Amino acid sequence: MSIIAVIGGTGYAGRHIVAEAADRGHTVLSVARKVAADRVAGVTYVEGTLLDVPSLLAELRGVDVVVVAVAPRGDMQGLVRPNVEALNNTLPENVRLGVVGGAGGSLVAPGGPRVVDAGFPEEFKAEALEAIGELEDLQAEQTGRDWFFIHPAGGFGAWNPGERTGVYRDGGDVIVTDDKGESFISGADLAVAVVDEIENPKHSRERFTVGY
Fold it and tell me: Any residues with CB less than 8 A from the CB of 181 and at least 6 apart, and which?
């Protein structure tokens, strides 16, 4: 079993990852700016923020994996990318870093354009491009740290929660769609994919997409 810290552990993606990891018997630390009112049994909840990496590092001592599940939107827009990079540069080298991104950086088809460049809603472009920047920083870094970056399906979010099936498809670089061209994954099954990757790493220092 691993010691897993989830930054943004009370948000939509984060709370599902926290619950899935705890249910599988991992030791879980949920880090968020506000402590959750509804808590998962056995999980340690602490107040902390990605915006204060030095203080955050003190909370993360002894962890095996850190998952960043903080979306660059609202008051976090423009702040997630530089702080993920700072975290990556200062975590102990033996700590694996996972980042939950968005669908925008996925490819439409093998070798094809990115989703963000193919009719993507204008109001979500800034968030998508910042998440892509987080990935680009990881791809360019030279520390040798093991990391993974996961792109959820297009229809992922609190507005479309779905249910846990325990089943998903890994599309590599390409967004996962069904036979009707629709792209979706529930919050719970995104968490299944994240914890699967932690338990049985298949994407060392690379990104991957998930959906049904």
Answer: none
